[in-house]
Known about the structure:
The complex is a heterodimer. By secondary structure, chain A is an alpha+beta fold. Chain A is 28% helix and 29% strand. In chain A, the strands form four sheets. Chain A has a seven-stranded antiparallel β-sheet with strand order 8-3-10-1-16-15-17. In chain A, strand 13 (299-305) and strand 14 (308-313) form a beta hairpin. The radius of gyration of chain A is 19 Å and the shape is globular. Chain B is of the alpha/beta class. Chain B has two domains: 10-96, 2-Layer Sandwich (Alpha-Beta Plaits); 138-473, Aldolase class I (TIM Barrel). Chain B has 15 helices and 21 strands. In chain B, the strands form seven sheets. In chain B, strands 9-19-18-16-15-12-11-10 form an eight-stranded parallel β-sheet. A three-stranded mixed β-sheet of chain B has the order 6-20-21, covered by helices on one side. In chain B, strand 20, helix 15 (488-494) and strand 21 (497-498) form a beta-alpha-beta unit. In chain B, helix 4 crosses helix 14 (441-465), helix 8 (317-325) crosses helix 10 and helix 11 crosses helix 14 (441-465). Classes of the chains: A alpha+beta, B alpha/beta. Chain A binds chain B through residues 12, 14-16, 191, 214-215, 217-222, 224-225, 227-229, 252-255, 266, 268-270, 281-282, 284-286, 288-292, 294-298, 315-316, 318, and chain B through 120, 123-125, 127, 132-133, 135, 137, 139, 143-144, 146-147, 149, 154-155, 157, 159, 162, 368, 371, 373-374, 466-470, 472-480.
Amino acid sequence: MIKQELWEGQVRIPSGCAISAVISREGRPINGSAMIESMRPMHERSNGLGGGFAGYGIYPEYKDFFALHIFYDTDEARNAVEANLRAVAEIVRAENIPTRKIPAIIGEPLIWRYFVAPLRSVLQSRQQDEEEFIARLVMHINTKYTGAYVFSSGKNMGVFKAVGYPEDVGEFYRLEEYNGYCWTAHGRYPTNTPGWWGGAHPFALLDRTIVHNGEISSYDCNRRTIEMYGYRCTLQTDTEVITYIADFLQRKQGLSLEEMASVIAAPFWSTIERKGEAERKELSYLRTLYPSLLITGPFSIILGFAGGLMALNDRLKLRSMVVGEKDDRVYIASEEAAIRAIEPEAENIWAPAGGQPVIVRVREGAY
Amino acid sequence: MGQWDIYPEFEVVRNEARCTRCMGCIAQCANGVHSYDEKRQALLCDDAKCVDCHRCVAMCPTRALKIVKSDCALRENGNWDGDTIKEVFKQAQSGGVLLSSMGNPKRYPVYWDKLLLNASQVTNPSIDPLREPMETRVFLGKKPERPQRGADGKFTCELPPQLELSMPMLFSAMSYGSISYNAHEALARAAEELGIYYNTGEGGLHEDFYAYGENTIVQVASGRFGVHEGYLNAGAAIEIKMGQGAKPGIGGHLPGTKVGADISRTRMIPEGSDAISPAPHHDIYSIEDLRQLVYSLKQATHHKKPVIVKVAAVHNIAAIASGIARSGADIIAIDGFRGGTGAAPTRIRDSVGIPIELALAAVDQRLRDEGIRNEVGLIAGGSIRSSADVAKAIALGADAVYLGTAALLALGCHLCRTCQTGTCNWGIATQRSELVARLDPKEGARRLCNLLTAWNHELMEMLGGMGINSIEALRGNRLMLRGIGLTAGELEILGVAHAGA
């Protein structure tokens, strides 16, 4: 019996991990089963205490609605959250997320999915755009409703995660029934506690998802900074804080992906000083502006978003990560084996340098 | 009421077998402890005049001298200890306010010593600063709410004025007057070489030191000594001194005897006149007045210099700091109650204000709760004694720290705590030219550079151990701290967990 205080969010839990991603630059559908196969050779990088996937382009029939994936502990929690949802949003569909009973995945919570649109009247009265509204709604549910946890909240995308090995998690969620232009996946090796389903990766807010391998030493500096801007880090995991930083820098501060990479994996001052004047000024500007959003310690992350993804290593490259491609597809993973497992003919395999962002976008109009 | 009220605190012990009667000790002691009796052909000493500054000890070529605490003690008493009784005697004799110098020496809790730093094991690699870059550069100043872009979409790259430091340490304010010309020169030279800043204190800037302007913080205090347009524009930043940790709520008093020609010119007051700094700024009776002074100083310097507001750590410091952050200040400096001084009423020094550790933790948290931590830089001072204290201060939330006492120790100060007498045998807290000459500014600067370079090396080792390779990732990173032997209340204020938790 695990004591209550050792649950996710009660203590800080460092993890080691495996990550993998595939994207079609032409926006062509990739079946979710491919991602499961990619994770299989990295079994040793997980310890069965968390696995998950994010698929983009998987809900084309509801692409204009926010897809909320929610874990509930009880029906009372579900009733309370649904009452709140009905008051502020139009719910066009509500259902259990289909799962497959398998021995490897047990103790599942109630897993629901809603396709919603915020009520225009509510947006107007709160003077918020729909993304800000949904982001705040997610924070509100996750901090104020006991036994309810929103783990996916973007449009035409979804996160599927659980306690278990990633390949089992994929089978549990019947990922072979989904097709998307981009997938990311994660296998977790937390250092203690069986945790809780919400603690698995990917971690998501709106359409941004993060899968992450590493333990960041700047965690509390980053957390205390991002919490100044209305985010609440309830899980005490690195991934959660990185997701909020990405949301803050991109959605609220208007930084591009490249600019964001130069904040969170900022080049060393000695590197900046060797750059040409324009670049030097810009990099110095960003480092001076956002000193507390620098992330130190080992990490490799894949940030998924509508229409693309970005992979990034910490500036010392303390975690492995390789990139490969074949035709319109780009593959990124902790190990080359994960890429070869689903594309034996992968070409141009290379390891990005520390702090060097790898950004892949789907052709405009193709997603 | 005998021959004397108080038996001397220290005894000067001379080893006659070692003493060569070189008479060096007589020359070294400005307090007149040592003398030579021609008749008896003996070296004598008047223990009553000894302040335990160790000058004679350090200069004796044969190590024939030592100073020991007198064992002539009053009857033990748990309530009326010897010092307390002696202070009553002194005041009964003089009728005056007790004066002291340097920081609060009482046995209050030192929270630095009850905080422990973290290190990486297994899940996260520590980083070797000898092999990997380890960054300690810090920018102090206001960070805008969001980046500004020009019409072309590119960043304007324009920021409010920032102070750039090669390491998160600055020399704190010590005025010319309270310390000597040579001490100031040593600080200025060291600041320049280290890529940091020293602080003029409230005594103006000597004309010789305008050359170090890029590494100088010029102070504006309640007495406004030596303040003019050229002075304000001479430094890299301006500090408004509202208070000082050693004597919150109290002004300053430089006796006329110390106001010689040079100090008179620098402070812009008549020679021989007392330089009295009022307790409050008489143009600041409220927070909105502070805002006016901040903006007056900004205007006088064409908005090119960051303005620091220095306050003593007092009970309501979090709210005060929040007010300062909203008053246009670029940087807040908080001075804890163990901070040093050239002279303060003993009762004030020892009983007023709060420890910097608690003040810093409360201020950093309040500014974050209000979402304005990025509006200001935060400097903590008031007894930072080692690189470990620096690391802990930064983890609690400081951007950088002020070093005063530690810098003076590097210059030779032995912390005898009698600066107010003006007879500093080490040439630091004195204006007597023969004493000032004992402090070689170049040698002093070298020792200051040694000290800070050593601390910075240690800081890098600690950062690397924590798996951090840039100082900004330690700032406010309170998970890197654990308390030891602290109560739940103390831990809550410090915002740290207890060791083991």
